[in-house]
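ok trying again, last paste got cut off:
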Amino acid sequence: MIAIIDYGLGNLNAFANMMKDIGAPHQITGDAAVIAQASHLILPGVGHFDRAMSQLADSGLMPILNERVIQQRVPVLGICVGMQMLADRSEEGSLPGLGWIGGDVARFPDQVNDQSLPVPHMGWNDVTPVADAPLFSTVPDDPRFYFLHSYYFRCANPADIMATCEYGIRFSCAVGRGNVFGVQFHPEKSHGWGRALLADFAGFNG
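nice, full thing came through this time. structure:
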């Protein structure tokens, strides 16, 4: 069963609908006992980094999440701000991140390579997975995903980059280390590409 973590942020029903569509057992939950029994975890997030980290801390779920992810190595997928929360820190706030994947989160520069691009980065964009990226094994060729963000993940270890995207600069839009994964885009809004990625995650057993 996939636990969609309810700590007060994120469009949880959209993820539940996608899970239903791919036939994956799932539950939206903020109950530590349910999380303790889940085979996979989805950590959604929207808005400001510090607010998301505060909400998660206030939910009381950090101990069970750390136990399941770090000690028991249960697969987890952070989405949008949920991906940024996997990092050590973010320029958007002062609170520490979860530190599950080494790195930090930076804001897009307003001008890059003589281009003036609007921030946030919003809409559809091409994504380039690295070879053998676990969450892209059944994603159709030339994938496009829907984005809405002003900050991006900078991996401390380039080996943790699972896919990249171009928006004035080339940035990591999917990361992975062991059982921990994150995507900056919104698979729940990305039609067949998002459905395939979530199905790959649901089938991931390490």
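cool. The chain has six helices and 15 strands. Helices lie at 12-22, 32-35, 49-59, 62-71, 81-84, 191-202.
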